[in-house]
Automatic annotation (TrEMBL):
Signal peptide: 1-28
Subcellular location: Periplasm
Protein name per its UniProtKB record: Transporter substrate-binding domain-containing protein
CDD domains: PBP2_MidA_like (cd01004)
Solute-binding protein family 3/N-terminal domain span: 47-273
Chief site of localization: periplasm
Highest taxon above the source species: Bacteria
Keywords: Signal
The species this protein was found in: Rhizobium lusitanum
């Protein structure tokens, strides 16, 4: 054996050892090789740019400079399973869909309600099912047993939220068509501003995801919840139409459902009741009801 060939063999053996150690490390970290291999080379090399809504507790929010929430915890777990880094950018809700379209972001963890309009530009991986809930200040004599009871009242909503389109329709078809006063819908650029408008008495009711408002009521002790929810839809992660990242995230979520980590994360945040999913799905314009 020549000296050169001996060095080559040693180098090959060393490389094999490194690759083997890397494989063991990946396996130990819970990386799913099949899901990892299905990702594009760009994601494998550069990671995934994630837009995260910064004002929607307990799903996604920033507190004392730290990004928190059950959806954030879920994103971190998915990153580990896919074996690629997720680079998080906490931002306002209204810039996330444009950011996905422009490829500034690759996925939005922003509790998107899945709607027909959004399916024109995005595919979705639902994380739970949730409807619109309604909260108002304790002590207010508001009897809200159904959507008709919203007629003539002021309602605060987040700009860009799907609840606005839905309640605009309710106002026209349930209120105005019956000769009742319309719902006075007021949009705010942050969820905190919408809630503050109600707590300060400027608006009567705040409308948002039912689990989100239940969390608000529990944490503050200042709000009561209406006795109904509207229009339950899937809520979850948005990706660009046709991006292979969608099926990979779906696979990661299914693996988490199978091993119980999905339920554990939800339970840690107290949202493991109604709305939990039993199977991961990918919702697209071509298959809106998988």
């Amino acid at each position: 054996m020549t000296r050169q060939s001996g060095i080559s063999i040693l180098r090959a053996a060393s490389l094999a050892a490194v690759l083997f150690a890397s494989a063991l490390s990946a396996q130990a970290a819970g990386v799913d090789k099949t899901l990892h291999d299905a990702l594009s080379e760009n994601y494998k090399s550069n990671g995934v740019n994630i837009a995260v809504f910064n004002d929607w507790p307990p799903d996604e929010f920033v507190e004392n400079g730290e990004l928190k929430g059950w959806s954030v915890d879920m994103a971190k777990a998915m990153s580990e399973r896919l074996g690629v880094p997720f680079k998080f950018d906490p931002t306002s809700f209204d810039v996330i869909i444009p950011g996905l379209a422009s490829k500034r972001y690759d996925a939005g963890f922003s509790s998107f309600g899945v709607t027909k309009e959004r399916l024109e530009v995005l595919d979705f991986i639902p994380q739970r099912k949730e409807g619109t809930g309604y909260a108002f200040l304790k002590g207010k004599d508001l009897k809200l047993g159904g959507e008709k009871d919203l007629c003539g009242h002021s309602v605060a909503l987040l700009t860009g939220a799907w609840d606005f389109q839905y309640l605009s329709k309710v106002s026209d078809e349930t209120c105005v068509a019956a000769g009742l006063k319309p719902i006075e819908l007021q949009q705010f650029t942050t969820q905190n501003a919408a809630e503050l408008a109600v707590s300060s008495g400027r608006v009567e009711i705040v409308a948002a995801g039912s689990a989100k408002l239940a969390y608000l009521a529990k944490q503050t002790g200042k709000f009561d919840m209406a006795g109904f929810i509207s229009n339950a839809v899937y809520n979850g992660i948005g990706v660009r139409k046709g991006d292979p990242l969608g099926p990979a995230l779906k696979g990661a979520l299914q693996a988490m459902m199978d091993d119980g980590s999905y339920k554990k994360i939800m339970a840690n945040w107290g949202v493991d009741g109604a709305g939990m999913l039993e199977k991961a799905i990918l919702v697209t314009k071509g298959n809106p009801n998988p």
